[in-house]
Amino acid sequence: xxxVMYKSLIAVCLFGASLxxxxxxxxxxxxxxxxxxxxxxxxxxxxxxxSINTLGTSLHDAFVEHPNLQYRPxxxxxxxxxxxxxxGAGSAKEANAISSLLIELDALSAIxxxxxxxxxxxxxxxxxxxxxxxx
Length: 135
Fold this sequence. Notes:
flat; disordered N terminus; two-stranded antiparallel ribbon; single chain; mainly alpha
């Protein structure tokens, strides 16, 4: 167990040391390097939302598979999140994969929080019956 934690810590430290972190979007530059991260349409926002939901599903599956799973953020000198220490994942490979999911989720959520409101989908104001909601 300790070996897995130490291997994960080393991987997180190595990954964190290689980051060029922006103050506004933690770890986004490393995770999404070479990708256009600007949200300039409703469809781009919906794609971002789908990506966040997919990551959430993957993390949920990891917690179901590893009931003792725990994670802790690793912070840099300026308070930015550099990575995550993951324990209870069973192997260093799985811990590193979960850490990567958490970093990517952090980056995508920071992007989602900075989206210009004009590109957010309009809210539905129609009321839905209880029967329709259950279907």
